[in-house]
Amino acid sequence: MICHYPGRLIVIEGIDGTGKSTQAALLEQWLQDSGFETIRSFEPTQGQYGSLLRRSMTEGRFPQSKEIDLFLKDRKEHVEELIIPALREGKVVILDRYYFSMMAYQGARGADPLLIRNQNEIFAPQPDLMIYLQLSVQSALNRIGIRNGSANEFEQKGNLEACSQIFDSLIDEAFVSVVSAEPSMEEVHHEIRSRVSPLLRSLD
User: Fold this and answer.
1) Could you give the CA distance from residue 36 to residue 38 in angstroms, rounded to a whole number?
2) pLDDT value, residue 148
3) What CA–CA distance (Å, rounded) separates 153 from 147?
4) Do 151 and 159 form a contact (C-beta atoms < 8 A)?
5) How would CATH label the architecture of 8-203?
6) Is the dihedral of CA 189, 92, 77, 117 positive or negative?
7) Domain residue spans of the chain
8) Hey, which of 2-16, 33-47, 135-149 has the most confident mean pLDDT?
9) Checking phi first, is residue 47 left (phi over 0); if not, alpha (psi -120 to 50) or beta?
10) What is the mean pLDDT of the segment spanning 47-62?
């Protein structure tokens, strides 16, 4: 769904280990320091449906049909209660994961990524900018190993490779900006700032 609101929707995406949450926080701080009103959120949310999904990640995954249903319900609630109201108020909304992660991770599980995208874009606004943090699977595995000590189902090599391919298929979209996540955290942050700045000129 392409909608025009006073605010801007920025989504940070990528496979596990790319530093999405860190970069989302750094971006929010920079925007706030620059005088912009921001809302930073993530998916799955901590709402009723998102909490079930988060629990399933550690306690055992639901059948795929149930996961997809919960993701759609969680996102609808997120869109209606937080994302669209904030955009209407002229705020910059920063999301750590959105329906593109659903395309990638459910696609890696066997679902049709295009069908998932179509299901979401019926109600979910397309982002003004999607920062795709691109990282090799081996680099991601190295970072995950340091962070967690062992990989869960989502962080297995085969799963990350499949997810990476789906994310890569979005590169030619007009709203997608690819940023290498291989350099240091500070270098990645400064590169993201350079991609975000043009989007915000009309909000100054």
Assistant:
1) 6
2) 47
3) 15
4) no
5) 3-Layer(aba) Sandwich (3.40)
6) negative
7) 8-203
8) 33-47
9) beta
10) 90
